[in-house]
Amino acid sequence: MTPRKTRTRNHASSTSQPPLVSDYDSEAQYTAPGTLRTREEINHSVIKRYVPSLSAILEIAASAYIYTLNNTTGEWERTGIEGTLFVCELTPSPITGSPRHCVVVLNRKGLENLIVFSEELQNVEISDEFLLLKFRSRESGNGFVQETKEQEKILGLFMTADGDAKERVCLAVKSHWEMAMRERESGEGMEGMVENFGDEGYGDGGMMREAAGESKPMGRRLSLTELFGHR
Compositional bias of type Basic residues: which residue ranges (predicted)? Predict the structure, then answer.
């Protein structure tokens, strides 16, 4: 008996790989996802959501706890903001080309983050316990006579970090403030020094305007008034 011939199947196997498909608009062929991002790349992506002008992350402290100094009692009060602290380099000023820096604390306790730009600060001091950030806040008097007076506001940043990371953070922040002060005194960084205290920010109208058009799906920047409880 003559054996039956096996029929040749012309249709593709169900396990065949799909062909590469070109994107309609760009005509770019599909490519497989790349390798997993590094921790540095993830950090950069997250910070850039809140600070679009981010250029590089220079220093990191694993945990920072934010305190405010009560000018009436002289006591430190915890704000409830705590999280990883990042010292950041920003893109140079588009007007003067001056270098710019900021400090970011991503709040693990809520959606309100601390973002302080170097040119907002009036002074930076390093103590055994805190990194002290000092501002000048303008407040109006009460009653019939409206008097505007300046009052010093102080943030205390208590940090925990491995090795000498805390010291590097403190020295970097102080160095960046000193750099901003030199730019201010020379008149090269004045486009960012519009006084804009209260709910609109600390003291930097230029930086706030930079981020005004950005869409930020997560979190927001606390104002000086909110940080100090309207004192």
Answer: 1-10
